[in-house]
Every structure is written in C-alpha cells, then in structure tokens.
Write a structure and sequence with these properties.
The protein is built from five helices and no strands. By secondary structure, the protein is mostly helical. The longest helix is centred in the middle third of the chain and has 35 residues. It is elongated. The chain starts with 8 loop residues before the first helix and ends with a helix.
C-alpha cells in the first residue's frame, strides 16, 4: 500500500472501501483531523493580522503529524494481524499496545486542532466561519473515531490478559 499522503483522494477512498482491513477507521480518523487542521490553516490565511501566524504554523505541524499517523495506524493494525497469526501472546500484547498508542496520539493532536479551530471561530474571518465550523465538526469526528479504536484495542488487550 502506498503512503496515504502520496495517494490521490480517489485511490485512498477505494482502498478504504476495499475488503482490506487497512486503511480503516483509524486512518480515516487521522485524516479527518488533518483535514480539520488544513481548514484552520485556510481560515488563518483569510484572516488579516499577524496574530494568526502562530496558529497557522501550529495547524500546519498538526496536519503533517496527523497525516503521518494515518499511515502509522495502518502499520500498527497490520502488526496486530501478524501478531495474532503468530499466536504469541507477548507479540499480540505488544502489537495491541501500539494499536492503542497511535489513536491516542491522534486524539491528543485532534484535541489541539479543536482548540485552534475554536480560537479561529472567535477571531477568524467571518466570511470563512462555515469553514471553521467544518473544521470543528471534522476534528470532533476524528476524536470520537480515535476513541473507538482505543476502546476496541483496550478490550482486546484486556481479554488477552484474562486468558
């Protein structure tokens, strides 16, 4: 699979719709967060004044990190599948912990994007308010999706510990 950031949107969506388990919800979550950060950047660019430069820079950093996490999520889940095939509980445990770590990072970064988006809702160009609100909705979806991935992997890890 090509890196998500190098794919055309249509190709990514075809991969997402395929029977392959990756990319899945975790990658989509990270990508939603990256899109939200990009919208924050756009609104900053449409807003006059030097006060938004720090927000622009941070939104750009978060966008890049979230986009990279989309690929890391695919790798983590692929590692989980390989670990289950090995039947090694220690490998499975380690892989599940990584599969929890990645969406946890996504959630943390998405929460930061949400703070930036809310700030831009206050100070941003009012003609781009709907873009700011779109960023907020996307980032909340990213957060909730990341939470779901954390929960399912924590549940699998807890079940493994009971065996």
């Amino acid at each position: 699979m090509n890196k998500i950031k190098d794919q055309k949107i249509e190709d990514f969506l075809e991969d997402l719709a395929s029977k392959s388990p990756t990319p899945g919800g975790g990658a989509a979550s990270a990508l939603a967060g990256a899109m939200a950060a990009a919208l924050v950047e756009m609104v900053c660019g449409l807003t006059k004044g030097d006060s938004v430069q720090r927000i622009t820079d941070r939104a750009n950093q978060l966008k890049i990190k979230l986009l990279n996490l989309a690929d890391e999520d695919c790798q983590a889940f692929n590692q989980v599948m390989r670990a289950y095939k090995s039947k090694s509980k220690s490998k499975i445990r380690k892989a599940l912990q990584k599969a929890i770590e990645i969406p946890d990072k996504v959630k943390t970064l998405a929460e930061e994007v949400e703070v930036l988006a809310n700030k831009m809702a206050e100070i941003g160009n009012k003609n781009a308010f709907s873009d700011t609100k779109s960023a907020i909705h996307l980032v909340k979806a990213a957060e909730k999706s990341a939470e779901e991935n954390i929960k399912i992997n924590e549940k699998a890890l807890a079940a493994l510990k009971q065996d």
